[in-house]
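User: Could you write out the 3D structure of this protein bound to pyridoxal-5'-phosphate? I've included everything you need below.
Assistant: Certainly. Input first, then the structure.
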Amino acid sequence: MTSLADLPIRDDLRGLTPYGAPQAKVRVALNVNENTHDIPEDVAEHIVAAVAEAVRGVNRYPDREFTELRTSLAGYLGHGVTPEQIWAANGSNEVLQHILQAFGGPGRSVLGFPPTYSMHSIIASGTGTRWIAAERDAGFAISAETAVRAIEQHRPDLVFLCAPNNPTGTPMSLEAIAAAYDATEGIVVVDEAYAEFMPEDAPSALTLLPGRPRLLVSRTMSKAFAFAGARLGYLAADAAVIDALRLVRLPYHLSALTQAASVAALAHAPAMLAMVDEIRGQRDRMSRELAAMGFTPYESWANFVLFGGVADPHATFEALFRESILIRDVGLPNTLRVTAGTEEETTIFLEALGRLGA
Ligand SMILES: *Cc1c(COP(=O)(O)O)cnc(C)c1O
């Protein structure tokens, strides 16, 4: 049998492992930060009708510029963002890949601050961009000073910031983001996959866009919007950045079905986001109850909680899995990460963990 090592694969891909969050049919899946609430039935029906209509045109290539979708996304984001400032792709992972294809690549580097979203370094290696890991402050925060010091030390071509950060939930201040921008002549990407779960009054990095043409803010419909299976991520940036991304995308990368489904879903944004308050409530309940059980939850502005004080994360993960509850071992010592589910899912998880103990 041929193994990977026998193939003439790129030298820089030898020995790497692919993204591999376990996918299993379980009773309670709280492992990849999805919105675990079903989308409302009337919204589902409207999306089905829109997709059915689009099917009738699939003999033709889709709108390469996804104009209607960009208009919908700009309307959803607000903050004065225009359709010319929007880019979208099959998940924000593909958006990030386009960014690295256009601004990174062989001979270039991207600076990140682990522990952070594992796909950032994986997309870096896929595009041949050197990944540089910088240190966070205590408690996983990144102060303005810490960001600036790392940028001045490493002089990267791109900086990836994740706010709120996955897998820790840690917020990042706009002051620190702006300082990072001022410290580099390169591209600064703020991954705001969890923006909708931030406190109501917390400002988005979208507010920093005017006058900062090298700042890119990426978002996704996979988390708050309950649309992970449809694959739609997007970003807002200066229109010139969007022109740069056009150079690397494959033509017609967003299918007519994806465009139709996403436009239809965005027309129901308030209904699709109706569960965000409830999810934030379950997140805060998890943090409180985990602390009461003797664990040490980290502050989270996202839809999950990272908690420390776990004697043997692998054993606890396995014990929960045997009860058909799937959470995430992100590889940090003595910690596990769990997505905030419905009230019922959250209760099942907390009761099972309570029985197992630390
Ligand atoms: C889940 C997640 C994404 C989303 O990826 P999609 O490809 O849009 O599903 C992006 N960034 C972070 C930090 C995430 O946690």
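The first helix runs from residue 41 to 55.
User: Perfect, thank you.
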